[in-house]
Design brief:
The complex is a heterodimer of chains A (about 150) and B (about 550). Helices cover about 30% and strands about 20% of the residues of chain A. Chain A has about 150 residues and is an alpha/beta fold. Chain B has four domains: about 5-110, Sulfite Reductase Hemoprotein, domain 2 (Alpha-Beta Complex), CATH 3.90.480.20; about 140-290, Sulfite Reductase Hemoprotein, domain 1 (2-Layer Sandwich), CATH 3.30.413; about 305-400, Sulfite Reductase Hemoprotein, domain 2 (Alpha-Beta Complex); about 415-550, Sulfite Reductase Hemoprotein, domain 1 (2-Layer Sandwich), CATH 3.30.413. In chain B, a hairpin with a 4-residue loop joins β1 (about 45) and β2. In chain B, α1 packs antiparallel against α2 (about 35-40). The longest helix of chain B has 22 residues, at about 5-25. The N and C termini of chain B lie far apart (about 55 Å). Classes of the chains: A alpha/beta (about 150), B alpha+beta (about 550).
């Protein structure tokens, strides 16, 4: 499985140094035993309440899509970005499909275990605007309308 | 009415282009049917028993004559010359070819229409009161808030893969015509003691296998916080809703498992933390959207029309249609006209291309260019001058659209059933047709008064049988079609779930059963009591006896 990363609005294949992964529950049970871990894997049924301490040392958090249609990780990603101000990598693993990549990036994912870079580039270009604010920097349509109205 | 600006138009055009690409990938074999399925289901395209079915959104049921003409064009060009209005204020085409669907969507996009979020486990097309903006009994027009919800929910990145589909309905009247208590979220605009309007937020209602009347988790939400509050509800649901069993995945199961009080706490706790100022629209944008829904330029007219009264006095058929199919308008000298899509013996909700064009012409000429679709599978011309009612009626009659049966026993909701649907156990449409034919006499029907018959061809309850005064549920017993009767349901402000009254009946017997129930009601009713009122007064037992004694 290839890894793609999003940086400054561009998606490209990443050469990934192998990560030392640890699950949230293992980490909480015994952090010292996992002192060399470099990526925290958070299952999609894990609560993110009181997690600030746990994530503080990690530059990579992996969120899971056991099936493409199980969308809990979208909320988890937004909470990590917007509520916990996590700025490291959030990686999507599992049921990651071409037509979900845009939703994922809007929710704060910036790395994807996904094979086809061409398809990913295309998918991220399909929509110019967004109606609602999310974890990305896109100004929602209503904000752009206001800006237009004020400029006029 | 709302009109697209460059942003809305771009959004819909880009969606149509995206879907064209997805269809091309399917047709070339790059995508298997399994891989294509989730993509088409995000865009209202189902694979039914005989063909693909495309469900086109009519946001909150409001559309224009231009849009109706385009729907007629689509019926002619891509279907067999008709369309089918659904309980979701949408229209379905039952026979498009996959290869044509991208062109159909392009044709719709030109008139600001689409199939976005008419299926899939996302926030579906928002529904509302079909009389919104015209009703004498509303506190204000609920549609600006529907439009605000439409925009916020369109391609919401966090809520496009929910545990299950999610339906929001909005009303602004104490007479609930939007069935807000049986939706995932129901919103009721009302005034508090200070005279401000805000939302009662009702969560966890729904039909399907496990019907529930929703719980009020907020009596009064200030309007400006609507979106952030919805976002909080949806986030709690997305994270906590069950995903292990699709039949237990709707929010109603979560609300009832947690208890309404605990669910409320979960939502309030989340709401306190969401970025309210970032999500809630600024006043300017709220006002801008409200401007689109400004009342049309009604003429100053006397409350009564002498031409109307003359016609009423001399034409019995017209007089009946006035009594049954028209409703009080908020502007003096105007009326709301219901167009029944339930001709005696017809298929509920079906309409031909030429009928669509007839409705479009009338709307353009007489109703400020507005048409509404109702969740009871009928249409509405919301703003007709009383002086014009006779002419409108005559034109509707000529088009076969003047059946005077709104709210009566033959105004039946029926799902497509086994004639079309892959989920159905039994047929629904023929049962509706036969009940309608059996009780065809309009004098009799009017004398019976309001009587809501709703028919579902399987337990998924798309025909809303749980909330029918008389509900009929089709079940398959060893390869044979059987029908269970439920009684006492209501989707209105007095919402309740109907009770199953006894063993299943054959398709022949179920029509007799409705007639027996009607006869029993006629015998028992006191002044002004509806069927539902008698049922609630007497309880199930005497109705059961009447139904089964001589069977």
């Amino acid at each position: 499985m290839k890894l793609l990363k999003l940086s400054n609005g561009r998606i490209s294949p990443a050469l990934e140094a192998s990560l030392q992964e640890v699950s949230l529950s293992e980490w909480r049970e015994n952090p010292t035993a996992h002192a060399d871990a470099t990526a925290l894997v958070i299952s999609n049924d894990a609560s993110l309440v009181d997690i600030a301490q746990d994530i503080s040392g990690f530059d990579v958090i992996i969120l899971e899509f056991p099936q493409f249609k199980d969308g809990r990780a979208y909320s988890q990603a937004r909470l990590l970005r917007e509520r916990l101000s996590y700025t490291g990598e959030i990686r999507a693993r599992g049921g990651v499909l071409r037509d979900q990549l845009l939703f994922m990036t809007r929710c704060g994912f910036n790395a994807f275990e996904f094979d086809d870079v061409g398809a990913a580039e295309e998918a991220l270009r399909e929509f110019t605007f967004a109606y609602q604010p999310a974890a990305d920097s896109a100004a929602p349509i209503w904000r752009q309308r206001l800006a237009h109205a004020r400029a006029a | 009415m709302y009109r697209y600006d460059e942003f809305d138009a771009t959004m819909v055009a880009e969606r149509a282009a995206q879907f064209r690409g997805q269809v091309a990938r399917r047709l070339s074999g790059e995508l298997s049917e399994d891989e294509f399925k989730p993509l088409r289901l995000m865009n209202g395209l189902y694979l039914q028993l005989h063909a693909y079915m495309l469900r086109v959104a009519i946001p909150y049921g409001t559309f224009s004559s231009r849009q109706m003409r385009r729907l007629a064009h689509a019926a002619r060009k891509y279907d067999k010359g008709y369309g089918h209005f659904t309980t979701r204020q949408n229209i379905q085409y039952n026979w498009p070819a996959l290869v044509d669907v991208p062109d159909l969507l392009d044709d719709l996009a030109e008139v600001e229409m689409h199939a976005i979020q008419t299926s899939g486990n996302c926030i579906r097309n928002v529904t509302s009161d079909q009389y919104a903006g015209a009703a004498a009994d509303e506190v204000e027009d609920p549609r600006p808030w529907c439009e605000i919800i439409r925009q916020w929910s369109t391609f919401h990145p966090e809520f496009s893969f929910l545990p299950r589909k999610f339906k929001i309905a909005v009303t602004a009247s104490d007479n609930d015509r939007a069935a807000v208590r049986v939706h995932d979220i129901g919103l009721r605009l009302h005034k508090n003691e200070a005279g401000e309007t805000g939302f009662e937020v009702i969560v966890g209602g729904g039909l399907g296998r496990t019907p529930y009347v929703g719980h009020t988790i907020r009596d009064f939400l200030p309007k400006e916080h609507l979106l952030s509050y919805l976002e909080a509800v949806l986030r709690v649901y997305n994270l906590e809703g069950r995903r292990d069993n699709m039949y237990k995945a709707r929010i109603k199961i979560l609300v009832n498992a947690e208890g309404a009080d605990h669910f409320r706490e979960m939502v309030e706790e989340e709401w306190a933390q969401v970025n309210q100022p970032g999500i809630d629209l600024p006043r300017e944008e709220v006002d801008r959207i409200h401007d689109y829904f400004e009342a049309p330029a009604f003429e100053t007219l006397p409350a009564n029309s002498t031409t109307l009264e003359e016609r009423r006095a001399t034409n019995r058929e017209f007089a009946r249609w006035l009594r049954v199919n028209t409703v009080a308008h908020k502007a003096p000298g105007y009326a709301i006209v219901n167009i029944s899509l339930k001709p005696i013996g017809g298929i509920p909700g079906d309409i031909s291309d030429t009928q669509m064009e007839a409705v479009a012409d009338l709307a353009e000429q007489f109703s400020f260019d507005e048409i509404r679709a109702t969740h009871e599978q009928n249409l509405v011309l919301p703003h007709i001058r009383k002086d014009d009612l006779y002419g409108v009626w005559a034109a509707l009659k000529a088009a076969g659209l003047a059946t005077a049966n709104i709210g009566l026993v033959s105004d039946i909701i029926a799902c497509p059933g086994l004639d079309y649907c892959t989920l159905a156990n039994t047929r629904s449409i023929p049962i509706a047709q036969r009940i309608s034919e059996r009780l065809a006499d309009l004098d009799e029907q009017e004398a019976l008064g309001e009587l809501k018959v709703k028919i579902s061809g399987c337990i998924n309850a798309c025909g809303h049988h749980h909330v029918g005064h008389i509900g009929i549920l089709g079940v398959d017993k060893k390869g044979e079609e059987f029908y269970q009767v439920t009684l006492g349901g209501s989707a209105a402000e007095d919402a309740s779930i109907g009770e199953i009254v006894g063993r299943g009946l054959s398709s022949g017997d179920v029509v007799d059963a409705v007639e027996k129930l009607v006869e029993f009601y006629k015998k028992e009713r006191k002044d002004g009591e509806r069927f539902l009122d008698v049922y609630r007064r007497l309880g199930a037992d005497p109705f059961k006896e009447a139904l089964y004694e001589a069977a």
